[in-house]
Amino acid sequence: MSFLTLGHRGVMGVEPENTLRSFVRAEASGMDAIELDLHLSKDGALAVMHDADVDRTTDGTGPIAGKTLAELRELDAGQGERIPVFEEVLDAVSSPLQAEIKDVAAARALAEVILERDLVGRVEVSSFHDKAVVEIARLVPGVRTVLIAGRWGADVVDRAKAAGAATLALNIRRLTLEVVEQAHAESVKVIGWVVNTQDHLRLARALNLDGATTDFPEIRRAGRFTA
Fold first, then answer.
1. Confidence (pTM)
2. Mean pLDDT of all residues in the chain?
């Protein structure tokens, strides 16, 4: 079974997260795929940022939903980087992408881009929200989806199956072999997040995970040699 390593918001341990600089570094580091986050701006652009507000990662303040793309472009997202839109990431790197959406509205906007640019084979869509996973699958036939959870109940595999998600992305600190085995028995893959240490990498291997999300390039290299 191949073990996939996903660059978390690019490689946010060494570059400003969710920036073109971070995504290019992730690709150069050989990540199997790149994970990113999407929010809708006030004027409907797919802004690449994790938080709903710009405060933590830029020199601005306030919610993304309250700003136009032009206003977002004025902000420094770290080391002079600007907040990119999803389409710019598509053009900046050629790697497979895992795009996390925060709600149903973002699902609809993302669906338009995936269909317009024929990205079903390249873009996997993830979300903490079951309804968003269901919506993107309805809008884009054949799209691969991931249900994310930080905390979960005994029904998490059933939730993934009900939403049509082929993969579960689960917090490595709470993950158990029982959950992984249950998922694999239902043909649902499991990736762990965020794997940033050798101990967590060994745990990911011991749990027989299908992959891991990491902030650091060296985890990808180490993962190739960890039994």
1. 0.96
2. 96
